[in-house]
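Reviewer 2 asked us to include a model.

Predict the structure of this chain.
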Amino acid sequence: MMSTTRTRGQAAPRQPRRQANRSLADTAYSRLRDSIVTLRLAPGARLTEADLSQRLGISRTPIRAALLRLQQEGLVESTGAVRSGRVTVAPMTAEDMRELFLMVGALDGVAARLAAELPADTRSAVATEAEAINARLRALSGAEAADILAAQELDVEFHRCYERAAAGPRLLAKLAALHARRERYIRVYTEALIQTHRVQESLDEHGAIIAAIARGDGEAAERHAVFNYRNALERYRRIAAAHDGLERWR
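Predicted model (structure tokens):
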């Protein structure tokens, strides 16, 4: 009995410590992810536990856990174990952008189809929300000094509004796994559209998705959502070809 009591007594303090480490790891992950997605940490930037620990004011163990999570999401790369290898922010390439947009577009199309198959009242509410987001994006993109960050957030939110409403847990998990990597490209892409005044094409495609969801046409909703992502690739290719320097992440 004495041995059992002593073992339990020794183990008890470890639980709060583990919870604290998890909380710090979540904090480190969120802050690093935000810096990577918003390109404050540039593609190819080297990351060290010591530097990040000092910068974030968090010990190295939670930092290591955050880097492992980011590596699993494809946002950082390591030449070996995170603890001992060279860790860098994952590069951004035209090939990676194409693969991501085609993959996310296919899954987003499934979500749009499911949204169109929701009960009439529910899909009407989804269409109304999506239309409101698109209207805000249209107004923002037409402003003299557009808030590019806000436009980027609205473009992401447009797709998420019907994904959240209709997608099941498996589809949402697959979308979530790709969204972090996609967001970096969405930000560069949206900035290019704003700067070259080419947003209207994308807004019209959004409108076609909304209309299909509103009338309950699942096939059309899926088709228009897939087209939106495929056309985004073509739009960015044309813009990059015509404006030197837009593909600064290549």
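The longest helix spans residues 169-196. The chain has a mean pLDDT of 84. We have added this to the supplementary material.
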